[in-house]
Write a structure and sequence with these properties.
single chain, mainly alpha, 2 domains, about 5% strand, flat
Length: about 260
């Protein structure tokens, strides 16, 4: 899943294996997601202590994030400090700039290392077990994609997927565009007793339950599709063209539709 044999990950290993601290190492450790980056360092077999030290600058992201939460709290009841809301926005903006900046710097040094460290990258041995698993997964993905082309899906499954997409779209628009009619106002500084009258279930209004139900139904329909498609792909034999797909299961072959 993490692609240990990919050029990007191998380049990361070259940079993070260098002795000492550098902007390149810290930008990769800070700019990436926290635990996936750290776990990936373990998968690559890097030394623990240098990685921990190189991750310390992440405090530059943590500090303004914590401050933004403090100011949100101070801007609400019972404090109601007007200046706190402005400072909260400033801190969130600073966090975003620091995060984006570290990602840009990390991308710069990765591109630079790919161009300058080709021999070192090529010298990293390929994980044969992962390579074999990648080949198997690639073959399965190709088989799945060919067996689930829109042109060869049975008519009922096309309507099934269209319905699922429409339900998810309506759910998203209800939550994002009409949140006030779906949910009761509730801020971080509010309490259930004061804002919701002691009833936490009143946070969701009638239309809110509808949006949640649509989301769950759409998710269930997606799950059913992938289970059905996975079984269909197992019987996939090959295709002569985009409109002609053969299946080893005679019952499944009845689903074949040519446009």
């Amino acid at each position: 899943m993490v692609g240990v044999n990919s050029n990007m990950i191998r380049t990361m290993k070259v940079i993070l294996s260098r002795p000492g601290m550098s902007i390149a190492k810290c930008s990769i450790l800070v700019g990436g997601p926290d635990w996936p980056t750290s776990v990936l360092c373990g998968i690559m077999g890097l030394d623990l202590i240098p990685i921990l030290i190189g991750t310390l600058p992440v405090s530059l992201l943590i500090f303004p994030t914590c401050l933004s939460g403090v100011f949100v709290y101070l801007s609400g009841e019972p404090h109601n400090y007007e200046w706190a809301s402005t400072l909260s926005t400033v801190c969130i903006s600073a966090t975003g700039m620091a995060q984006s900046g570290s990602m840009v710097v990390a991308a710069f040094y990765l591109e630079k290392a790919m161009a300058e460290e080709k021999d070192a990258i090529a010298a990293i041995p390929i994980d044969e077990e992962v390579a074999a698993a990648d080949e198997r997964q690639k073959a399965l993905d190709e088989k799945f994609n060919k067996a689930t082309k829109w042109q060869v899906l049975p008519c009922w499954m096309r309507y099934w997927m269209i319905t699922s997409t429409l339900l998810m779209t309506v759910s998203c628009y209800m939550v994002m565009g009409f949140s006030s009619i779906c949910f009761s106002p509730f801020a971080m500084s509010d309490t259930v007793d004061k804002a919701l009258g002691g009833d936490p279930w009143s946070l969701v209004k009638g239309p809110g339950y509808v949006s949640i139900a649509l989301f769950l139904i759409s998710s269930l329909m997606q799950y059913v599709f992938y289970k059905w498609a996975g079984n269909r792909a197992k019987h996939f034999v090959g295709d002569k063209d985009e409109g002609d797909v053969s299946f080893s299961n005679s019952n499944t072959a009845q689903d074949n539709t040519r446009l």
